[in-house]
Amino acid sequence: MSKLVIKNIGLVLSGDLDNPVLDADTIATEDGKITGIGAEKDFDQEGATVVDAKGTTVTPGLIDSHVHPVAGDWTPRQSQLNWIDSSLHGGVTTMISAGEVHYPGRAKDIVGLKALAITAQRAFDNLRPSGVKVHAGAPVIEQGMVEQDFKELAEAGVKLLGEIGLGSVKAGAEAKQMVTWARKYGIQSTIHTGGPSIPGSGLIDKDVVLEADADIIGHINGGHTALPDDQITCLCESCGRGIEIVHNGNERSALLALNCARELKQMERVILGTDGPAGSGVQPLGILRMVSMLSALGQVPAEIALCFATGNTARMRDLNCGIIEVGREADFVIMDRAQHSPAETILESIQLGDLPGVGMTIIDGVIRSERSRNTPPANTLPEVI
Asked: Are 211 and 173 in contact (CB under 8 A)?
């Protein structure tokens, strides 16, 4: 039985859009789950690993809703090792695959694509690079697939589809049929949005997105080329699906999508991803950058912007993490405003567009990294005592 107590917390950001700031200075966990949130005097610290947060901020672990993993902690797109570990140092504790499309020699026949998806699902279920939870095994659907293929994938444990549009299925009606089959068997779908991003992909415009009716409007701000403004606005207004904004997309279009969601009073639909690794590189601080950018330029309170990368995604993706709440998985980031930030508090610094300094990441109640090697140095660092 493993216990962890984080005490002397200055600010607890819950990740819950409806209650983003908690009145607490201590969080207790046991066997990877949150068991208590409140005042230090109410918790027994005997036998626990104790972290003194030293007045800094605790948030849920960040969730990257859109990545393209391949094998372990390696990406052939950049011939780079340890990109997932680098993301951990940017506060990311969970990743969602939008398709293992960069796999060298990726099979595009139906037997092969199913085999790759099942292999990726199994591999990342057995391996957590640096402790990061990678939900992988997302087949890129191709023409000729039938309902039985989706049934077999689901029975094998596959729960995601890769971005619709990266394979040969690009027509709305054809995509809709496969989305319907996937949904029938509990497989969540994401659709590519905008212009081509890799060889073989193509333009997916609003008409295709609306007809396909996938669960997530993948990178609504383009990857890398965004749709015209009126199409982005139409997508936000015409369906109730997830509005995914990514680091590798068009920043102006990202702000447009955010403003649409705000005007619709549907901010719970906004989730964040990096869409990396990609041609633009690996972005270990991509989620933190999106939080700061949307807060600063989108005029969103920092504690709300953080929900886009935590609780919103957890609920949209049906995950038991992303919110600091009793019974949920004990994934946390301990952070503080960066040294020499002109702001007085971490929330003010994020709203100025500054990145916070990560002092510690915790996954399932286990410390996975301490002072980040990638973020600016935090003004104050937590300490294991």
From this structure: yes
| Of 71, 73, 59, 61, nearest in space to 282 by CA | 73
Task: CATH number for 3-60+323-384: choose from 1.10.10.10, 1.10.357.10, 2.30.40.10, 3.40.50.720.
Answer: 2.30.40.10
The pLDDT tens digits for 298-339 are: 999 999 999 999 999 999 999 999 999 999 999 999 999 999
Within the chain, residue ranges assigned H as helices are: 83-88, 110-126, 147-155, 172-184, 206-212, 229-238, 251-263, 286-298, 302-308, 311-317, 346-351
Q: Is the pTM of this model over 0.90?
A: yes
Partners of 94 in the beta sheet? 63, 133
For residue range 274-285, list pLDDT tens digits in order.
Answer: 999 988 889 999
What are the boundaries of each domain within the chain? Answer: 3-60+323-384, 62-284
List, in order, residues 6 or more apart from 349 with CB less than 8 Å away.
Answer: 337, 338, 341, 342, 343, 356
pLDDT in tens, 227-252: 999 999 999 999 999 999 999 999 99
Q: φ, ψ for residue 176 (rounded to 5)?
A: -60, -40
Closest by CA position to 17, among listed 243, 311, 231: 311
| pLDDT above 90: residue 197 | no
- Judged against a pLDDT cut of 70, whether residue 199 lies above it is answered with no
- Tens digits of residue pLDDT in 65-111: 999 999 999 999 889 999 999 999 999 999 999 999 999 999 999 99
CA–CA gap between residue 268 and residue 255 (Å, rounded): 15
In Å, how far are 22, 25, 79, 327 from 11, measured between CA atoms?
A: 8, 7, 39, 20
Nearest to 214 by CA among 257, 259, 169: 169
Q: Hey, what are 162's tokens?
A: 């890769």
Amino acid letter, residue 255 = L
What's the rounded Cα separation, in Å, for the pair 117 and 115? 6
Task: Report the CATH superfamily, name and number, of domain 62-284.
Answer: Metal-dependent hydrolases (3.20.20.140)
Q: Specify the 3-state DSSP secondary structure of 368.
A: strand
